[in-house]
Write a structure and sequence with these properties.
Elements lengths: L1 H14 L12 H22 L18 H32 L1 H14 L8 H11 L2 H30 L3 H9 L4 H36 L2 E2 L2 E2 L5 H11 L2 H30 L16 H7 L2 H22 L11 H29 L4 H38 L1 H16 L2 H12 L5 H27 L3 H9 L4 H35 L1 E4 L2 E4 L3 H10 L3 H33 L4
Antiparallel strand pairs: 1-2, 3-4
Amino acid sequence: MNRLRQTLEITRQRLRTFAPEFAPAHPLWADIAILLTIAVVLYIGAQLAFGAPRSIRGPAISLSPAALPFYAACSLARMGVAYVLSAVFSLFYGYAAARRRSAERLLLPLLDVLQSVPILSFLPVVVLSLSALLPLRLAAELASIVLIFTSQVWNLTFAWYQSLITVPTELQEASATFRLSGWTRLTTLELPFAAIGLVWNSMMSWAGGWFFLMAAEIFTVGDRDFRLPGLGAYLHEAANRGNVLAICWGVATLIFMIAALDQLVWRPLLAWSDRFKIESVEGQERPTSWFYDALKSSRIVSRIRTGPLRATRERLDATFGVQGNEPDTASPHVMLLARVAAVIAAAAVLYGSVRTSIMLSAVRSTQWIRIAHDAGATLARVTVALFLALVWTIPAGVLIGGNQRTARWCQPLVQIAASVPATALFPVVLLVVLRWPGGLDIAAVLLMLMGTQWYLLFNVIAGASAIPQDLKYTATLLQLSRRDRWLTLTLPALFPFVITGAITSTGGAWNASIVAEYTTFGGHVLRTHGLGALIAEATATADYPLLLAATLAMVAIVVTVNRLVWRRLYRLAHRRYRME
């Protein structure tokens, strides 16, 4: 019995250190400086928006099923361009933050704030400012890509950065012993080590991109109609006309695209990336993909891999694979230029802050009171949506991630369900919920839940899958009851992953409030009290001072909650639940 108690205590001690490495706390001044910069950017965009055309008419949207292939291709192209930009940005940004300590002090606080900013509240400023500088169609396309990019990039960047700083110590020492160049270390150690996390986070980012794609394709500001041909515009037009058959055609096309991407892209990538898993005990079946098996056995793919791809890889290795260690300090000339640029940027932010304050002075005291009241209403809805998501995602995620037989059937369904944008199903929800008492308030919470619960579920599945197999065997040998197994093994192991999913979900819920609290249905505007509705209303009426004030209020609330709640929980996860 004493031996069993000692084994159980060792297991608990290991679980106290179970978690990925998290970034350290950042000083308050960094958040304040970044918030001021965001305010200045919003002010500049609002000033440019005054020069936008007063009346814009978007293209007519056909509800014929024959138009759906073209609309699907347009939406897929926007998603693809945004994802490529997100991947390139993430690789450079995350590498700079992980490899340069001087850059880390600025890049990490900037990343922490930007991923908390409500994306949809920036869309009016982005669209109107671009329309004042570029042709209308190009401005609308660029704005939609920017919106999708910002919904995808932060998740990928965090995943890449966390992978870089959690490379096992023995592998880092081996790369230093062999004096690998930065390029060789990147291609043979860091990218393979991060492959699994990047694939899963790419699926999450792609699913989030579908949500914001729908919002970008149906965007209007007063008499300015910036709609774009795509699935989002098709579904919105069908809902406005009350054409249930067209809604079914659009949703069916969307589900078909998502299922095709799952089978032709994500499942093969999961099967391919499994080769890079680092584990001491092999206890689960490997993920499989019929398309990946077909590609491996294809002669054409084999010739491409051994021909052009190998030649390109050898050329890149010869160009960048020079031995030597990279210093963490820059040259004196670079440091001088960086300081001069910092002084100029600080002066610009200071001047912009003054101009922003002048614009905010146009906001009346009654409007500030309304902002505070509406912020409380939206915060309550976000809290309810997060609680509902936690109630079902934790047991469901443990069931899927801890049982390979269940995961084989459920994971594809979860990926498809997560990729169906909530905005595409929202008209169907409204048809049912609006008949209930307080229907729009319930519908708003449901839309927040539909758009954000998947981030939690994916993280819980990842956490359950990452529990070391030897700890599972230990719990079985100790014959722990179901309750003790949850309290001793499952919940401590899931804690850091739940926190990661919760912070991502709450950020998504704040974004979704702009669509959930103010929507057009059946040719009528439906709204409820909330900060998201206030932002949408200010956008529709082109009230830029109120739009700036409401957006800054939402940013300040999200950043404050992150600093007071989520960062402390992150530090708790880093201190007590990290595996080494």
